[in-house]
Amino acid sequence: MVKRVLVAGGTGRVGRIVVQRLHDAGAQVRVLSRGRHRADSASAVQYVTGDVTTGAGLAEALDGVDAVVACVDPMDHLVPAALAAGTPHLVYISIVGIEKVPFSYYQRKLADEKLIAESGVPWTVLRTTQFHDFVGAGLRMLAKSPVMPLPAGWSFQPVDAREVGAALAELALGEPAGRVPDMGGPEVLSVGELAGLYLAAVGKHRLRVPLPVPGRVGRAFRSGAHLAPDRAVGAVPFARYLDETGGRF
Ligand SMILES: NC(=O)c1ccc[n+]([C@@H]2O[C@H](COP(=O)([O-])OP(=O)(O)OC[C@H]3O[C@@H](n4cnc5c(N)ncnc54)[C@H](OP(=O)(O)O)[C@@H]3O)[C@@H](O)[C@H]2O)c1
């Protein structure tokens, strides 16, 4: 039977990969985002407008779907809307270590995970490390100044959003699995190493200075709470991602 899947946030970095993978696997795909979408009867993917922060358009978007992949947050409107729509399988992307890093966005995602797990909706949650594009965008911003400040003692384990999108699509086509094993990129690199790779890829020279980040969030990142070295399952290293994109992302 053809699965009907809603991808909330399906025009975003990871969402659009999920959409492509589901479509390639023969699913009937609907995409929800806030943008206005032109009706295109030739497109195999249906685009609908809605907002997960207000609940607008969610009932229509969820109508008749077997699964929802949430590549967006928060979940406080989407979860009740899914319950009302006949409890489709809800697949949610979360972030490694959110219970250990007292960063407000992470705390909100932790609350979303709890809401989903206690809602009665059949669910699957995949936590991943930061995407290559996200780390790259951060480095690009820091490299704007001739002196590049780098959070002292921090490392990242960037993962390719294409691999994450493929994993989410596969989970949406499978049975609800609860919290599945975390997904991390293939290597943990210090911000100094990441900055070196980025600067070489874009052909820039910058004076790199370590910036001590005070407070509990700074400490949590220094402790590596957001890393999953024992789940280094991603295949695409940051250097290859930079090669492929030439640092333009
Ligand atoms: N980026 C990372 O490194 C990373 C790592 C691990 C987990 N994640 C998680 O992955 C998810 C997606 O991240 P991403 O980087 O792919 O995000 P993104 O590129 O910013 O895409 C967000 C998507 O959600 C839509 N959207 C945003 N606000 C919305 C709203 N209020 N109602 C409906 N749609 C909305 C956006 O389209 P419109 O703007 O048109 O609405 C877009 O399609 C997030 O939950 C994030 O926490 C990200």
Helix fraction, binned, reads: 25-40%
Largest sheet: 7 strands, parallel
Given the structure, what is the number of helices?
9
Ligands (ions, cofactors included)? NADP nicotinamide-adenine-dinucleotide phosphate
Q: What is the assigned CATH homologous superfamily? A: NAD(P)-binding Rossmann-like Domain
Shape: globular
Distance between the amino and carboxyl termini: 38 Å
> What is the number of beta strands?
11
| CATH topology type | Rossmann fold
Stretches where pLDDT is under 50 for at least 5 consecutive residues are none
- Which CATH architecture would you pick? 3-Layer(aba) Sandwich
Task: Spell the H/E element sequence.
Answer: EHEEHEHEHEHEEHEEHEHH
Could you explain the architecture of this structure?
Pfam families: NAD_binding_10. It comes from [Mycobacterium] crassicus. This is NAD(P)H-binding protein. This protein is of the alpha/beta class and 249 residues long. The chain has a seven-stranded parallel beta sheet with strand order 3-2-1-4-5-6-9, with helices on both faces. The chain has a two-stranded parallel ribbon with strand order 7-11. Strands 8-10 form a two-stranded antiparallel ribbon. Helix 1 links the parallel strand 1 and strand 2. The two termini are 38 Å apart. The model has no long low-confidence stretch (mean pLDDT 96). The structure holds NADP nicotinamide-adenine-dinucleotide phosphate (NAP). NADP nicotinamide-adenine-dinucleotide phosphate binds next to strand 2 and strand 5.
